[in-house]
Amino acid sequence: MPRIEEKIAVDGKLDEAAWQQALVLELPFETEPGENIPAPMKTTVRVFYNKDSICFGLDCSDPDPALIRSRYSERDQFDADDLVNINLDTFNDERRNYFFGCNPWGCSATASRPWAATYPGTPSGIRPAASTTGAIPSSSPFPSPPCSFSGPRPQVWGLDISRWYPRDQRHRLGLVRIDATTTPTRASS
Question: What is the 3 state secondary structure string of the chain?
Fold first, then answer.
């Protein structure tokens, strides 16, 4: 992931030069209801970090934008909407993650799971932003050794990014394959 110090406006647009220099990923799989089949829609993710934040920008293609489901709602109350989720495994141990997501209105959801008893509370420093862009400040309470984006050694975190695409049925598009026989399915993961 590149370190880019250029400032961006958190406005749902990916038109600044920093986004052009960012790491580009795609969500190639549909993991629900299909099991690891090609994603029916293109979703491009751009990600970079600076001394203060990790920045994610998602471009979610849709052949019929009139069908996008999005409600302006209270925090954590939009599971039936089109939405994107970022899951950070800051220990890279596949046992717990910090999750944040937002719908096209920028309504947000955050959580730490599945071991919330070990790391109680929601990361209060997470700031999802306009539409499908968000930033995570380095001051967030992620228990990772160390949680500084300008630290002396590289950090290796696990990452999954998903897009929920509800149309005739609810599709989950993802960055990684998920084996449905061993992984429990959650509507907000």
Answer: CCECCCCCCCCCCCCCHHHHHCEEEECCEEEECCCCEECCCCEEEEEEECCCEEEEEEEECCCCHHHCCCCCCCCCCCCCCCEEEEEEECCCCCCCEEEEEECCCCCEEEEEECCCCCCCCCCCCCEECCCCEEEEECCCCCCCCCCCCCCCCCCCCEEEEEEEEECCCEEEEECCCCCCCCCCCCCCC
Q: Go through the domains of the chain in sequence order and give each one's CATH number.
A: 17-174 (2.60.40.1190)
Write down the pTM of the prediction. Answer: 0.75
The pLDDT tens digits of the residues spanning 124-175 come to 444 434 453 344 443 344 444 444 555 566 778 889 999 999 988 999 999 9
